[in-house]
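Bench log. Compound arrived from synthesis this morning; before running ITC I wanted a structural hypothesis for how cytidine-5'-monophosphate sits in the protein. Inputs:
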Amino acid sequence: MKPSDRIFVALDLTDEEEARTLARRLTGHVGGFKLGLEFFSANGPDAVRAIVDTGLKVFLDLKFHDIPNTVAGAVRAATATGVSILNVHASGGLDMMRAAAEAAAVGAERHGVAKPIVAAVTVLTSMDTSDLDMVGQRGPADEQVARLAQLTKDAGLDGVVCSPAESAAVRDACGEDFVRIVPGIRPSWASTDDQKRITTPRQALDAGATYLVIGRPITQADDPVEAAFRIAGEMAE
Ligand code: C5P
C-alpha cells in the first residue's frame, strides 16, 4: 500500500456540498474519507453514497452499540451504501460483534458490494482509567484496550480504532493483519487544535498504524491537496 492510500481524511462537516467538493479535490491524493455522526446526522445515507461515488474509500464512523439484532440491521444497511470501513463499540460484547461481522458479509452479498472492513472502538481516547472505573469497567485503560482488542478479534472482526500509543500493543497481540485505524495525527507543521496526545504521521506508521485518520491538518489547510501530498511524503521518508 502506498503511503497516501493509508490516509483517511475526516470530513467533519455538515455541509454536503462542501464535503463533496473537498472529496473531489483530494481524490488521487489520499486513500479515502471518514464520515462521522455529524455528517451522517445532517445528511443521511444518500450523502454517504454520493461521497462513495467519487470513487474513493469511505470509513463510516457511526460506532454502533446496541443489541446484536439491531446492530446487525444497522450494519447491513450501512454496507448497502458501499462504504469500505464501518465500526461498532467493542464493549457491545462478543455476540454483538459476531452479529456485526456476519451482517457485513450478508449485506455485501445482498447488495453486490465488497465486504467492508468492520472495526471496533475499544476504549474512547477521551476516557482514562478513572472514567472506566465510574462506568464499572475494569482498568487500567491500556489493559482494557488489549482485552477488548482480543475480544474483537475473537468475534471475527477485522480490526480496531485505537490511539497511536496503543497500536503497537494491538499489533503484537492480534497480529499484523488485524487493522489499526489511528486518529490524533498532527504533522509537526500543523496546528494541534484540540488534540492533546498527538503523533506525527511518520510516528503513527512506525507505531503500527494501518490507516491514519487526519482531519483539520488537511481540511483546514490553505491548500488541502498540498497538505495531503506533504503528509504522504513525510510518511515515505
Ligand atoms: O481534525 P482532526 O485530525 O483532529 O480529526 C480527527 C478525527 O478523528 C475526528 O473526526 C475525530 O472525531 C476522530 N477521532 C479522534 N480521536 C479519537 C477517535 C476519533 O480524533 N479517539
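What the model suggests: The mean pLDDT is 96. The longest helix spans residues 94-111.
ITC booked for Thursday regardless.
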